[in-house]
Amino acid sequence: MTFKLSNISLPLKLSFLIFSMVLNCMGLIILQLSEAKITYGELGFLESFKDLPIAFISLFAVSFINKTGAKKALIMALSIVGICSCLLPFVEVFWFYKLWFAVIGACFAIGKICVFGIIRNSISDEKSLAKTMNNVEAAFMIGIFVVNTGFGWLISSQYAEFWKFGFMFIALVCVITIFLFSKADISEIKQSDNKSIISELSGFVTPTVILFLGVVFSIVFVEQGFNSWLPSFYKNHLKVNSFFALQATSFLSLFSYAGRTVTATIIRRFSLPGYYVTCIFLIIGLLITILGIQYLDSENSTLILFLFPVIGLFLSPLYPVINSKMIAQTDKEKVNLFTSLIVIFSSLGSSVSSIIMAVLFEKQLLSFYPLYILLSVTVLFMISLLYFKVSKKKI
C-alpha cells in the first residue's frame, strides 16, 4: 500500500474505541436491566444477539469488503453505529436491545475485518505487526474505560434516568472518525474473486489454523467472563454499589490498556510464544491468590476487589499477540477471509461464555466465579501449548 500507517493510525484507533464502547456497554445494560426485573437467563442470551450476527455476517462481509474497499465499508459500518446510538435513548422495549446488539455486532464484524486488513496490508514483519496491533487494540481497552466510567457517573448522579443519552457521545465520535477517514487516502489490495468462499476456506483447514482458532475462542471466552459480568459479580456477591461495580470494569480496562501499551513497547525484545506463556502464568498466579483469599481469608475478601482488575495487565496482550503471529503468516490477498474466521470464533467464544456465566448467576453460584475463571485459563494454557508446538509451519 502506498500510504504510511502512521497517517491513519488515529482513525483506526478511534474505530476500535467506538466498537469497544458499543460492544462493552453490555455489562452496563445487564446491570441496569437486571434492576428492571429482566432475568439473568434473558440477559445471558442478549449477548448472543450481539455475538451470533458477528459470526454469521463475517464470511459474507469479506465479499462485500473486497468489492467496496475497506475504507467505504468501514465508513458505512461507523455510520450505522452512529445512527443506532442516536436511536437507543428513545426506545424502552426489551426486544429493541436484541435488534440493537444484532446490528452493532454486524457492523463490528465489518469494521474489524477492515481494520485488520489495513494493518496487515501495511506490515509484514511479525513483531512489527504485534506492536501495531497492540497499539490499536489498546484503544479497545480505553473504550471499555470510557463507557463504564461515563455511564457509571450518569447512573450514580441526579440524572440517572437519562443514562441512555450517554450514547449520543458515541454518535459524536462516529461523526469525527468518519470525517477523518473521508480525508484519508487508503490504497486497496486487489482481491481475487475467482474462487468461492468455500474453496478459499478449505485452504485454512490445517492443524495449525484449527488450534489457533481454538486459542482465539478460549481467550475471548475468558475475557468475556470479566468484561460483561464482573460488575454484576461485584454487586451481587461482593455487595458493592452500582457505581463501584462499573468502576471494577473501568479499572480492568485501564490495566488492560497498560498491558497492551507496554507490550507494544517491549515486544521486540522477546519471542512471542515466550511472552505469551509468561502472561498466562502470571494470570494463573493471580487467580490462585484470589481463590486463597476467598476461601482461606474471607475477612480480607475486599482485596479481591482490587486484584481482579490487575489480571487485565496480563490477559489483554494475549489476543493481539497470538493474532499477529498468525496473520503475519497469511497472504495479504487472504487476510480479510482469515480475519473473518478470527471474528467468528471470537464471537462464539464470547457468546458461549456469557451463556455459561448467566447460568452461574441464575443458580446463585457466584462463589465459584474465580474458580470458573481459573479453569478456563487452564484450558486456554493447554490449547496454547499445543498451538505453539505445531505453529512453526506456515499456512
Structure description:
The chain is an all-alpha fold and 395 residues long. It contains 17 helices and no strands. Helix 2 packs antiparallel against helix 3, helix 10 runs antiparallel to helix 11 (242-266) and helix 11 packs parallel to helix 13. The protein starts with 8 loop residues before the first helix and ends in a 5-residue tail after the last helix.
Secondary structure layout plus pairing:
Elements: H1 9-23, H2 26-35, H3 40-68, H4 70-87, H5 94-120, H6 126-155, H7 167-183, H8 197-202, H9 207-227, H10 230-236, H11 242-266, H12 272-296, H13 303-310, H14 312-315, H15 318-327, H16 335-362, H17 369-390
Helix pairs in contact: 1-5, 1-6, 1-7, 2-3, 3-4, 3-5, 3-16, 4-5, 4-7, 5-16, 6-11, 6-15, 9-15, 9-16, 9-17, 10-11, 11-13, 12-13, 12-15, 12-17
Number of strands: 0
Order of secondary-structure elements: HHHHHHHHHHHHHHHHH
Q: In DSSP terms, counting alpha (H) and pi (I) runs of 4 or more, how many helices?
A: 17
Task: Report low-confidence residues grouped into runs of 5 or more.
Answer: none
Oligomer: single chain
